[in-house]
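Appendix C: a fully annotated inverse folding record. The material below is reproduced so that readers can follow the format used throughout the book. The structure is listed first as tokens, followed by the designed sequence.
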């Protein structure tokens, strides 16, 4: 499984229709909805905004797509097929179409939407997907610096911290490192 290195876009004109794709890392369907609203607001006169995404949840991978008014299976589905084929996780791709007056036919639409999405994904680059997990951990004050250093080595982040009689953290780190991290820092 892979995900994006960075957000990216691509554009191409096919028989006078302009296609603009944006690929973005999104961890939740809420983030997807926000991204798509932003994309739609940036292109208020566009004729179509087709999209597809794959989001990993506790229940598994959620794949969704929309053809956005194009003939069934000609816009969102080719985008999703690319995401499925490469096993992208937590990625959304939206493709804007400004209609140029020439009908592309179903095969032409599939190539245009899928091809533009593929270009955006290539521009974004890929990196191995690492499943992250949030945990709560309590440790002594004298071990706080050690905890933050170790978390940084694991490419984890502190989401929240509270200091009272001990130091309490909510952290996010790679799921494969959780058990060892907890054993090391639990009192």
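Designed amino acids, in order:
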């Amino acid at each position: 499984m892979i995900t994006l290195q960075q957000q990216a876009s691509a554009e191409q004109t096919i028989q006078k229709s302009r296609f603009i794709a944006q690929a973005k890392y999104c961890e939740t369907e809420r983030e997807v909805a926000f991204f798509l609203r932003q994309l739609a607001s940036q292109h208020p006169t566009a004729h179509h905004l087709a999209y597809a995404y794959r989001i990993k949840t506790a229940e598994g991978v959620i794949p969704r797509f929309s053809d956005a008014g194009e003939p069934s299976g000609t816009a969102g589905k080719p985008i999703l097929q690319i995401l499925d084929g490469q096993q992208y996780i937590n990625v959304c791709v939206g493709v804007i179409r400004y209609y140029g007056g020439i009908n592309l036919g179903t095969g032409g639409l599939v190539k245009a939407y899928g091809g533009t999405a593929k270009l955006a994904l290539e521009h974004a680059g890929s990196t191995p997907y690492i499943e992250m997990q949030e945990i709560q951990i309590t440790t002594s004050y004298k071990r706080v610096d050690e905890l933050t250093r170790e978390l940084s080595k694991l490419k984890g982040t502190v989401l929240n911290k509270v200091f009272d009689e001990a130091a309490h953290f909510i952290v996010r780190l790679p799921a494969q490192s959780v058990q060892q991290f907890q054993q090391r820092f639990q009192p």
